[in-house]
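sanity check both lines:
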Amino acid sequence: MTPSPESNVAIVLTTLGGDADAAALARTLVDERLAACVNVLPPMSSTYRWKGQVEVEREQQLVMKTRLDRVPALQARLRTLHPYELPEFIVLTGTASEDYATWLRLSCTADTR
């Protein structure tokens, strides 16, 4: 069985500081229909190079599920809301089950009520 183009979805990853209000950011992105679902993972330790120094910080991973065509709008909105100078924005594409993809598509479509 070949998946339909409508079953293609995007998973977008970003991180926030361990003390940031990730739940509020997640709620905003879902309320604005930029993401169908945002998972906020527990704080973790991140080691990275920034401006020539190795840094170690507590961060939270956010996993955002959205339609492929919503990725540019999600990225633009995240830029305005994100506290980091250079927020992580990694897009992974995949194929979802038809039922899940339908739910995701409808969840990221402007409310026509």
Summary: The longest helix spans residues 71-81. The CA atoms of residues 12 and 91 lie 5 Å apart. The chain has a mean pLDDT of 93. The helical segments are 22-31, 71-81, 98-107.
